[in-house]
Amino acid sequence: MTKRERVLNSFQNQKVDKLPMGFWYHFSPDEDLGQQTVEEHIKLYREADFDFIKVMCDGYFNYPNPFIKTVSSAKDWLHMTPMGENSPYIQGQVDRARSVVEAVGKECCVFYNVFCPMSLMRFGTSEELLMEHLKEDREAVCHAFDVIGEDIKTLIRLLLTEAGCDGIYYCVQNAEQFRFTAEEYREIVRPAELSVLEYAHTLSQNHILHCCGWAGDKNRVEVWQDYPSAAVNWAVYVEQMTLGEGKKFFGDRCVLGGFDNRKSGVLYAGTREEIEAETEKIVREAGTRGVMIGADCALPSDIATKRFQWVRKKLDAMANII
Questions:
Q1: Measured between alpha carbons, how far is 190 from 181 in angstroms, rounded to an integer?
Q2: Distance, CA of 178 to chain centre
């Protein structure tokens, strides 16, 4: 079975020869290093023998719409317009994804990391300003979410139709329990966020939903429970919801993860024996249909590649139980 078949079968809860796996970390969070970033993605994929590649959006976290610099009050957001497909912000990401896809051909599936509208606005301004403006003029800020969403849709269209990605890894955030009630989140954040994901599904069905626990605070995960995706990835250790539990919670969809991504986690700090034992524990708990092994989120970039190789070899050795 090829790596592509292994992943796509898992998306469909179909039998595989061994469980697919993939991990990721940030190579250069604050800048686009061009071809070097592409080569680092390929190097990690080949050395660790991953079954898929998640292309990181390093250097493209901040949404650089020039209108943002003109905003002085919440109501100003009502006048923001999209940057459009010729924006270097969009074209640069498409070029990176295309280069990765061309390097691996149809050897494996490639997914590109895409953040939701509210997160991009938060990155491009600040958390304090965004939450303050939401209190002052919710309608204006929600308009900005929609505008950012249009640029995200353009990015997704080009990633899938021109760069050749199989799908996106859609990162939803901002549902921490301290930030919004579930009702507020569904009213304020959901419309633009879900609109992006639903648009992506008109172009491909092979998307991974990432319910991000980046800050270590528990999310109201139920607000994402009905978001469409082929697979779901969440912070097992933050949300205290195992892969097996999450598989039921998300309607028996394919699940991705299992390992803690923090430096205190066994994957980063444990011995080979501990990592092998954790791998087996995850598989035994989650099952072998519609399960892909990964981590809660991005791992520290200084993690040794051999640690991924230990997981790979253990999964290979467990192929007989599938």
A1: 12
A2: 22
205-208-209-215 Cα dihedral, nearest 10 degrees:
-160
**What angle (nearest 5°) sits at the alpha carbon of residue 162, between those of residues 8 and 42?**
60
Q: pTM here?
A: 0.97
Residue of 239, 233, 232 whose CA lies nearest to 216: 239
The amino acid occupying position 66 is P
Look at residue 52 and give its three-state secondary structure: strand
User: Of the candidates 220, 221, 150, 160, which has an alpha carbon nearest to the alpha carbon of residue 191?
Assistant: 150
Residue 233 phi/psi, 5° resolution? -130, 130
- Please give the helix or strand (H or E) that residue 218 lies within, else none: none
Instruction: Name, in order, each residue with C-beta under 8 angstroms of 46's C-beta and a sequence gap of 6 or more.
Output: none
Q: Which residues contact 39 (CB under 8 A, 6 or more apart)?
A: none
Rounded Cα distance between 226 and 240, Å, is 19
Q: What is the pLDDT along the chain (322 residues), one digit of tens a residue?
A: 999 999 999 999 999 999 999 999 999 988 889 999 999 999 999 999 999 999 999 999 999 999 999 999 999 999 999 999 999 999 999 999 999 999 999 999 999 999 999 999 999 999 999 999 999 999 999 999 999 999 999 999 999 999 999 999 999 999 999 999 999 999 999 999 999 999 999 999 999 999 999 878 999 999 999 999 999 999 999 999 999 999 999 999 999 999 999 999 999 999 999 999 999 999 999 999 999 999 999 999 999 999 999 999 999 999 988 7
- Of 131, 87, 105, nearest in space to 42 by CA: 105
Please name every residue paired with 107 in a beta bridge, in sequence order, or none if there are none. none
